[in-house]
Here is the input.
Amino acid sequence: MSKSGITRLLKSGFGALALLLSPAAMYAQCPMCYQAAASAGGRFIHALRSGILILLPAPFVFGAMIAYMAYRRRNHYIDSPDPLSPANPLMD
Here is the structure.
C-alpha cells in the first residue's frame, strides 16, 4: 500500500472515530433503555455495561473479516487487457 493510501485510510479512520464520538451519537439511544438504566441500581448498571462490552466485539470482528476479504480480492475480478488487442495502449 502506498504512503498516500495509508494517509487516506488514517484520515478516514479518524473522521469515522470523530463522528462516532460526537455528542449527538453518544446520546442516540432509545428512551426506554435510558429510563431503565437511570432508575436501576448499581448492580444493574454494572451488568448492563458488562453485557455491552461482551456483545461489542462481534460486529467489529465480522466487519474486519469482510474488509480483509474485500482487500484480498480487490483485483480478482478486473479483466487484464489482451496484450495483442489493438485497443491496448502498450501496442503503440
